[in-house]
Batch of 4 targets.
Target 1
Amino acid sequence: MASRPLVSNPVEYGNSASFWVEYPNGLVDLTRSHHLLNATNSSAEAATQLAEPPKLKKDQADILVDGERTVRIDAKATVLVVVDMQNFFLHPDLRTHPTGLACVDPLLKVIPALRGLGVKILWVNWGLTDHELKTIPPSLIRGFRKRGSGGFGSELPGSFGRLLMRDAVNSQLYGPLQDLYLQGKEAGTDVWIHKNRMSGLWGYQTALDLYLKENGITTLLFGGVNSDQCVSGTLVDAYFRGYDCILVKDINGTTSPGGYDNVLYNASNSYGFATDTDRLIRANVV
């Protein structure tokens, strides 16, 4: 995958309130904490400040990403968005999803590390109400009536409950992830957010968007299933709304042929950046 060349001089993107600064050494500062100085009337000292990135501050972290870049985040303004790691999509009794199951162990390792940095974990999942069943469009209803399924709200085999309804067993997180969430909920680091479309940010005012705005969140790390459906739908909507988007490669999976590669290409070349859990765990902090 081709990477964009390093900048020859520092560049600031955005406006006075929401901005990034990119430096020739490959650092892209997403913290919105340090504007470039005005070079036209600057002293020699100011010119040096203009060219060199500021020192890492408390609650900030530098993370290596693809494309020979490092992104600097404000941990208090950053969340990990984990999409649809639910029994309905992952449990072997309901489907075969090897790439989704491969995301479980990396999640179990990276989430405690991110909690330690002060990054909140948002579990964004399908969780429908009976009222919402009346408003889902026909294309989406048809899409979930595969393999002879009765679709949203229908009874699944065994004790899995109604398909993707709130509080049903099939809507719970898969395997050890459910306990991981409950531990985080108890500690105040993890939040469960329901969605009723592929994208967790679909619509004028969603639970996810309200949480992000109310908590001053600017940077979103993305994982979950399926990469080219609900994950990418949420990521692209976040990009449109002006959030910083970072795809975490080894906690993303899909069953679609070629779907993952397309998402990765666009996430790292257009929408933002891409990294992996090892680099998140090794993030440079003060």
Target 2
Amino acid sequence: MRGAMELEQEPDLLLQEARENVEAAQSYRRELGQRLQGLREAQRQIKESASQTRDVLKQHFSDLKGTLGKLLDERLVTLLQEVDTIEQETIKPLDDCQKLIEHGVNTAEDLVREGEIAILGGVEEQNDKLWSFTKKASHIQLDSLPEVPLLVDVPCLSAQLDDSILNIVKDHIFKHGTVASCPPVQIEELIEKPGGIIVRWCKVDDDFTAQDYRLQFRKCTSNHFEDVYVGSETEFIVLHIDPNVDYQFRVCARGDGRQEWSPWSVPQTGHSTLVPHGMPLSSRPRPFCFVAYIFETVGQPDRRDSIGVCAETQTGFDSLQRDQAVCISTNGAVFVNGKEMTNQLPAVTSGSTITFDIEAVTLGATNNNEVGNFKLRVTISSNNREVVFDWLLDQPCGSLYFGCSFFHPGWKVLVF
């Protein structure tokens, strides 16, 4: 009886085991397929980057050859012009001397012919011709000869060409350009924040000394990257990020004392599922809503620190702990028109989100017991706690201004 039951159960067990093996094989196949896809992407990255690198190298050296040929041609023209200038300036005195000598030769030849005729003439004519010839010869300085410079005193042009420049150029050419298997900087982390993404990068080449970094991003549906940050920091929060939309980020660096940028890092894709704090979270109308997110507190807190809202822009103040303003200090103290409230919120730290919700309560004149004629209902929330109070102003205001002040550097605040 037992054997019959075992025979009946055995096909069911075998069938269940076969199904499990099929599911395991399907899962194994999916995993292998994903790894194969990743491997193909890696191969594609190598091939595409190698092709792009070849194109960049060919174009660069083609431009370099053209530039070097142009520079050599320009230098040759300059040297030839120098030869022409020296030749023209030094040959002119010799040409003038040549003209003077040739004129003297012609004069002497004429004088010789005239003298010979005078000597060969008749007796009666001879005296007159001799006298005329002698008088003419006396006016010509036959003992005055022009000075002809010695060859050692005359310029002898030559070209001094140092063949060592070929070795210098050859050394520079042989050292010019490098091929790197990976960029010197890479994106290390993408952290989603409400309405933004914090991008952090790091240097992966120990021999590379970075002076500045350059961060770019784009929507995955866009063909063009755009600059979003240039500076010495190794992280930056990119704002105005649409929720649930993929963005690509890449970063490069500029070496210390250099002008050109390094190759771009491998693009990293990230997105944020968090909506900005400034978006309405309920249907209740909120005419004014400000949100401050503290994402880093490198600086030391101070009781005079202030994060808040003011009704007017005034110069000469270093804090919002003053009239016409409401604020919270980094120790959690709340100030209204410069006076500290009894209620206190938690201290502001890294990761704190401070929300200011402000709506009008009354307009125009109020009763005589109230100082102002414009009342706003203010709700300040911080770290799951909030305080609610009425803010009295001297006159109605159509705009409010957010501001913050810290007495020690290093605070990083994101405002919505």
Target 3
Amino acid sequence: MSEAEAMSISQAGGEQEDAGQEASSAQLSKAQLKRLKKKAAAAQGGEEAANGAAANGAAANGAAGGGGGTAPEPAGAEAEDSGDEEEGAEGEGGEAAAEGAAKKKKKKSKKKKAGGGGGAAPTQQTVPPTVPVKQLFPSGVFPEGEWQSYKEDQRWRETAAEKRELDRLQFDMINEVRQAAEVHRQVRSYVQTIAKPGILMSELCEKLEDSVRKLIDENGLNAGIAFPTGCSLNWVAAHWTPNSGDKTVLQYDDVMKLDFGTQINGRIVDSAFTVAFNPRYDPLLQAVKDATNTGVRESGIDVRLCDIGAAIQEVMESYEVELDGKTYQVKSIRNLNGHSIGPYRIHAGKSVPIVKGGEATRMEEGEFFAIETFGSTGKGYVREDLEVSHYMKNFDVGHVPLRLPRAKALLGTIDRHFGTLAFCRRYLDRLGEEKYLMALKNLCDAGIVDPYPPLCDVKGCYTAQYEHTLYLHPTRKEVLSRGDDY
């Protein structure tokens, strides 16, 4: 027997033994074959096309070379197998092409992400600041202020379950105020780097206010600037900001009070500090800073406002400052004071004096207060002087008939953009208002809008100011505007 005949007999025997296996494999559907091929291709990675081609070639060669030595298969089965092979080859080719396209797409998308085109949220502030603060805190929870305990007779509040629950219920509201406070901290940190001798006061105010608008993500009356930037110089204690065209320049020997506010949904953060470049003014600034911190420390639920004023005056007037060989006692400006704050209302009714002898009204739970103190080397008493820049709609005014159409139109602008928040002439200029002074005077004469002229001590003296906003929680007080700077 020849070697070829022996091989043919053994193959025929093998075919008879494996007939059941071939029959079961022939019963596999086309879809099942495709799924098996896909799994194999995935396991082999990028080499599936080459491996598939090699396997097809081997199968074709095997069929051609072994056809004479093996028992012939039925014509129908042959046709089915060849059809399956062709379809599988086409399927593999299509799958390889599809996978190649998918890989290209993945590479493109990776390149886009690496290039920053996806717009990922920033993690730190820019210089100058332009990123809204809410993007820096994607969790939506903003930094807390400085916590201080109440005096001994109110310490029980910290452990009382009822008061702690009241505190938790106020979280959403207080979180909005903390956002406004964080905007204030970041803006004033930036402003302290640009407030240098030689800068135009108008330029300083514009940069400060533009930063507030960006960081708070200004949205009409829902979020924005709470009142015009006060940048009063030297003997001017408060309520001065440059009107359009003002060319005042900050000088090395100036003492500037920077007072600005931020608000979200009418919740106002009011805070101020003093900038002085000449170190001879340091005792004046230290006196006012210590007096403000004393007022914050003495504040609390059921505390009488007159007691806070007496404590502030005692600290303030314990300081002296020497200027040009003459020693001055630092005086509390007796007709200026701190105040309670309400929604869209910077002065909500209660005044916090900075001298003894004030009213005996008490602070209450759930109130916001601006604790601000003013020290002076002059008389310690201010009067209205210079050109008016600050205005504010009267919070309690009702309907007042107006005859001038221009006054009615201006009032509409004020209602839409400021409501009962303070504004200045620069803000009206920014909105495109022109030739409005007569209409503005008409609104003031009618009692709808109140003017707030600059407040000045005697010419030639120096005044300083520090201010913080605090909230009287049911459990403790929180100094919302506290920062690393003051």
Target 4
Amino acid sequence: MEKANQTNDGVKIGRERIEKMSAEVVDSNPYSRLMALQRMGIVKEYEQIRLKSVAVVGVGGVGSVTADMLTRCGIGKLMLFDYDKVELANMNRLFFTPDQAGLSKVEAAAKTLNFINPDVAITTHNYNITTVDNFDHFLDAIRTGGREPGTPVDLVLSCVDNFEARMAINTACNELSLNWFESGVSENAVSGHIQFIRPGETACFGCAPPLVVAENIDEKTLKREGVCAASLPTTMGIVAGMLVQNTLKYLLNFGTVSDYLGYNAMIDFFPRMSLKPNPTCDDRFCIERQREYLAKPPCEKNVTNLDEAEPEEPLHEDNLYGIELVAEDVDTPTSKSNEKVTTTQSNIAEGLRLAYEAPVANEETSQVSIDDDVSLDQLMAQMSGLSERK
């Protein structure tokens, strides 16, 4: 083990570094509960997480919690991008603490994360990725920021709060053909979403842009003095949890990764869907990625996550409405005049009832026997006879 419990300035940064993850169940092993996923058959080889590199763009309400979770999960390398500073106004959220006010978000986050898990390699990038020069720095960073020097990152996570930054990430990932997750929380703080974008295969952020982007509106004109968006640590934490959960599923190849997963806190509704790319997208790199994907052989294309196989079981096995199928060659017994025809109402779940009751059979009711070979004239004669008897 490499000792890493002190920095050069003498500040304690936590435990010693661990060279190899162990599944040993002891109080001193920070990975025992993570490695249990492997023992339980959820993940084939959990330690592969240490070979992965993830870029988190935006270290705010969602991004800081996302970085925290990935660090605790033992991600190999974490790249943090942000240019903002920690403010006391951020204290309604998770992660940051009042003593960090005034520090850059990436600097404050790196110190906390290094203390939590010194095994994670953390790099910080304190600049605005939307400017021309900084965009090139960002592009180069994610192109060469993999666990192995010179390789691209395995995944980019967008946790920014503005469309301009999302479009910058979208452009960079389309150009480099990098998979990424877009995430967001509504201004009223009671809904959010994540979207998994695979260039050429699914819709990029420019394929179906929001109105502010589609109509080329300047975001700055939408902000009003003294008015800010609402923010709840609960919604931020839920969206961050959805984001990291799907990140782990993607990186470690287990479960189903959601193409789009929403969250409505007012009714606890989690919609899912898939978005196909727009063949007339304004992003030329998106069009190039679409051509490349269409040229792939079918065996290399991903099956849409939301496609479901035909159900093997009967669709209406519960038979809530008491419907019965009777073979034509089976005689149905006639009920007595004072008894109702038996139904399957007893099988209906408690609290439900049939829309109508089965009719009561009456032996005194006149019956008309109709033979399959009876002609229309004969039938009319029988009907006339019944009228005369009445």
